[in-house]
Amino acid sequence: MIDKTSPIPIYYQLESYIKNQLNAGILKPGDSIPSEREYAESYEISRMTVRQAINSLVNEGLLYRRKGSGTYVAEKKIEQPLQGLTSFTEDMIKRGLTPTSHLIHLKIVQANSFVAGELHISEADPVYEIKRIRLADGEPMALETNYISAHLVNGLTKEVVSASIYAYMEQELGLLIAHAHQSIESVKASAEDENFLKIKRGHPMLYIQRNTYLQDGTPLELVKSIYRGDRYKFNIQMNRLRQQ
Ligand code: 16G
């Protein structure tokens, strides 16, 4: 499988070989892969070359290293399309995963100027601040903080927010959730993320802000979320824009 006469760099050939094994399920999430020495001996290549291939797969998030123990196959990322406006609960159920939430707090606070501006309400107006760890099959995926005007929505209890907020607002309150604006930025895991998501401080994370609106244009929620960079991949479908 390694062809030393090929113009394709050897590290790249090894990288492709390991990738094929991952795709074929020969190497599964949690499996340890052979050591650098083992690869080097089996294919009669240098350890430096093996390291280069493995580093590249670690950087892509397909493998991860555990200090003093070895290199392992990472869990598959959750691929999330960015076409439709859906809830975490819906997204997980669609994938056959069980969604749960761990409620950190639910309180009514006075809107600060940023929250008031985003929700088109006055500063110091009452807003629900709901902070939840969102889990898929018991594994923490994201830390979400929702701000929802308490004048617009009421009845957000611990029981309600421990399940689906969207389901409550649509099915119980009859609100027409229509569209949202979402932005995604990369950030490093903070001490809080380390604590709640069990991710090492400094690891790459995705910071997402969603502003959701009702059909009549009223801002419904401002959501600040931190998603695990090692477990999430967002997909976008694009159509070619032609110059006029
Ligand atoms: C998603 C949304 C969040 C929304 C939540 C409702 C992002 C990136 N995602 O997690 O804005 O509040 O779904 O979920 O912001 P729920 O209905 O399961 O409570």
Automatic annotation (TrEMBL):
The lineage of its organism: Bacteria, Bacillati, Bacillota, Bacilli, Bacillales. The keyword Ribonucleoprotein does not apply. Gene3D superfamilies: Chorismate lyase-like, Winged helix-like DNA-binding domain superfamily/Winged helix DNA-binding domain. CDD domains: WHTH_GntR. Transmembrane segments: none annotated. This is HTH-type transcriptional repressor NagR. It comes from Sutcliffiella rhizosphaerae. It holds the Pfam family UTRA. Residues 8-76 form the HTH gntR-type domain. Keywords: DNA-binding, Transcription, Transcription regulation. InterPro entries: Bact_HTH_transcr_reg (IPR050679), Chorismate_lyase_/UTRA_dom_sf (IPR028978), Tscrpt_reg_HTH_GntR (IPR000524), UTRA (IPR011663), WH-like_DNA-bd_sf (IPR036388), WH_DNA-bd_sf (IPR036390).
